[in-house]
Structures are given as C-alpha cells and as structure tokens.
Amino acid sequence: MSEGRDLAARLRALVEEADGAGRFAELAEAWRRALVARAQARDGAGTGEAPPGRFGMIGDSPAMHAVFDLVERVAPAEVPVLVLGETGTGKELVARSLHRASPRCERAFQAENCAAVPANLLESELFGHVKGAFTGAVADRKGIFAVADGGTVFLDEVGDMPLDMQSKLLRALQDGEIRPVGSNKVERVDCRVVAATNKDLAAMCAEKRFREDLYYRLNVVTIQLPPLREREGDLRLLVAYLARGLEHELGREIELGEDALELLEAWSWPGNVRELENELQRAAVFADGVIGAAQLSPHIQAGAT
Fold it and tell me: Which of the chain's ends, N or C, has fewer CB atoms near its CB within 10 Å?
C-alpha cells in the first residue's frame, strides 16, 4: 500500500503544479509514465538480471516490441481492450499487464474463462447470485464483476459466450449495471473489461453467432499477439527463461544442447509458448544431464509440422 500512497502523493503534487496553468495534458502523460514505470519495476523485482522484454513478458523481436509499445500506450486508458491471438500466445499475461500499468492497479483483477464454465452457470460466475436462486445456492455470492469493482475483469475465450449472456454483458459494459441471478435489484459496478479470443469475432458477427453491438463495444482497442513462429530470435530467450524456472522446480541445473535448440527453432509451435513450456518440462524429466535432441518429443525430432 505504500506504493499506492507514494503514487497518490506524486499525483497531488502534479495536480497542484498544473492547476490553472492549462497543463493537464502534460499531467496525464506524466501520470501514465509513472504507472508504466511502476508496472515494469514490479515485473523485474527480485529476479536478478531481467531477460529482454517488458511487463513480465519475454521477447526482443520486432513483433513483441510492437506489443509492448501498444500495452504501454493503452494501459492507462479506461477503454475496453480486445486481445487476439492463437492458443498459448499469452493473452492473459497481456491482460494482467494492462491492469498493473493502469490507475486501477490497486484494485482487484478477476479472470474468467468463458469456455470453461457451463452456460447455465456463467451468469452466476460473472454477476453473482442470491440465496435460493437455484439448487445449491445456499448463500449470496458475488460474481467477478462485483469483486473487481474499481478494477479489471478479464474475459478469456469470449467468443464462446452464449448469445443470451452476450446481451447481459453488453448491459454491464454500456450502463455499468449487473443483476445477480435471482435478484430483482440492480447493482452498479465500475470495471474495465479486457476480453480475449482466438476466434474470428467479425466472421461470427456475420454468421449471427456473436452480437455485433457487443463486438464493437469490446473492440475499442485491439492487441494482436504474434504466434511464436513469427517471433524471430525469441525462442532461445524463452527457453533460457523457462529453464531457470524448471531449475527451481526440479532442484537441479537445466541445460540444452545446441542440437536440441536447433530442433526447437525448426518446429512450428502450433501451441505457442504453452507448448514450448510443456515440451521443456517433458524433456527435463527424461534428461539426466544436458537436454539433447534424443530427449525431445518424436515429432519434434522428426521435424514434422
């Protein structure tokens, strides 16, 4: 909380300095830089020499620098953000980075995977319920929008949200109002929404499988994450970073031979960074010393795509 007090004191000083001088654009930019610097400092705290990257994301490729610059620009704004990308590219990392570098950073960050919750329970997960609303509702329960009031809600796989829930989400975005399941009372909430999907929402709108008005409400700013195969030079950085994590997990050093690294670079990684992490975990289990080509999965050894 001391960090929050320090930032508040800096903001008050900037307001006093700018008051009456017509310098509020400068004030907003200074506040934006302070928030971003704080988020970057927090990401690198206690990790020793930080690997190339920003906002807790690893990468030094042009594609990732474009993502970092966009996150820095968009994070302090209050607009909804739609994060697009293939499975395993790090969409939730982007959402958390947007929250940490925003004025809402002291409030809650709540995430929900819309594809992982049964359709009949998703409304309760998002908006809560009252006691007796349905079988098993033995007490009032807040949904993630109420818990994250003043903070950020991350809706992963929003393209899998049922159409009837889409209309209720639209109301929450437009009016800042939610109604818990079984309640006749409307509650006011103030949440920034970051949504993510690997689906083509524009095509889904044309097919009437996603509400067009909700799409435009969510898609104020789009951040497109590149697949790992398009991040030139980043694979070795990620391998080094993930290997350090495995060393702590397994209690021994993890090293990869050049033959293994070349095969990893040749693979197309349809599952992206998540697939790479799983592959390294598997190889580390089977390797007694240095991870070589022989410890990699057969399809990677064969160079299949």
Answer: N
